[in-house]
Design goal:
Blueprint lengths: L7 E4 L6 H10 L3 E8 L9 E9 L1 H21 L1
Antiparallel strand pairs: 1-3, 2-3
Length: about 80
Amino acid sequence: MTDEEPLFDVLVPPGVPRKLIIEISTKFNVKVVERSQPLKFANMEGDERELLAFRGTMDEVKKVEQYMLEQLRAFVEEK
């Protein structure tokens, strides 16, 4: 990542195994960051939740998103 390139986030859904978060952060050129996300549910209007996200270039976060979804599908199918 260079300072001139715009950076993008891929939110990590709650419940993603820590093992996968660590694997992605070492396998791809991204940083794990905390990001505040507003909740828009019936009785939670205005509440915010701190979520984890992978931050990197557009190309890198697209790869991360695809890889994370593939790994989560495989994880769910195992159970």
